[in-house]
Amino acid sequence: MSLEERIQQVNQKIEDACKRSNRQSEHVNVIAVTKYVSLQTTGAVLEQGLEHIGENRWQDAQAKWEALGQKGTWHFIGHLQTNKVKDVIGKFAYIHSLDRLSLAKELDKKAGALGMKVNTFMQVNISGEESKYGLQPEQASSFLKDIQSFNNLNVIGLMTMAPHEEDPEMTRPVFRGLRELRDDLNGQALTAQPLTELSMGMSNDFEVAIEEGATWVRLGSILVGKEEGTRWA
Ligand SMILES: *Cc1c(COP(=O)(O)O)cnc(C)c1O
């Protein structure tokens, strides 16, 4: 299948999931995750009119960003080491993996030095799997209090990763849990603006995530494919 056909197919699935859940598809943003594909394919993705590009390691993203950085909006979706903040700040408009105070401090400091604000999602480990990064749900509210004075961080929502399931329906409680946590945190009014965004859903489970309220889906293999010779393929 060509890239164009895959994009069409994904868009149709998004429309269908929105219909099933009475949502408007304008509220679902697609991030094309390019970690499995080349610089050339990443360029083709942007040419197809997709705006949002997601990468999870700076080492893999660097060449792509240097060639194409101005052509899209870049999302850092992977675990972020504190000593890598200097590499990604100012380049990635969104950081989806805010999961600890030391990282929040460094992002706030480096964004401040550039005179900018960085959009972040607080990553929460809803599934409780030990292999997953993220704050525990019960830590989320005190974390938001701890970072209230960090004026260069725009916390716009929450991010989670569901376990890989053969039957995507099994992921539903994880996505529902993230939405309920967001609503609960908004009830506590811990952030200057309400948390509106939910970054959840990948190739195998994005339709369920949309039905549960995802506003950003992160799609790699189903959308842009996987190519030999990349780190993750
Ligand atoms: C790789 C990755 C994705 C995309 O994975 P696919 O299953 O290929 O869609 C999404 N989110 C994160 C955090 C990733 O690392």
From TrEMBL:
Its cofactor is pyridoxal 5'-phosphate. InterPro entries: Ala_racemase_N, PLP-binding_barrel, PyrdxlP_homeostasis. The modification N6-(pyridoxal phosphate)lysine is found at residue 35. The keyword Repressor does not apply. Pfam families: Ala_racemase_N (PF01168). Gene3D superfamilies: Alanine racemase (3.20.20.10). Keywords: Pyridoxal phosphate. The keyword Cell cycle does not apply. NCBIfam families: YggS family pyridoxal phosphate-dependent enzyme. Pyridoxal 5'-phosphate (PLP)-binding protein, which is involved in PLP homeostasis. This is Pyridoxal phosphate homeostasis protein. It comes from Paenibacillus barcinonensis. The lineage of its organism: Bacteria, Bacillati, Bacillota, Bacilli, Bacillales.
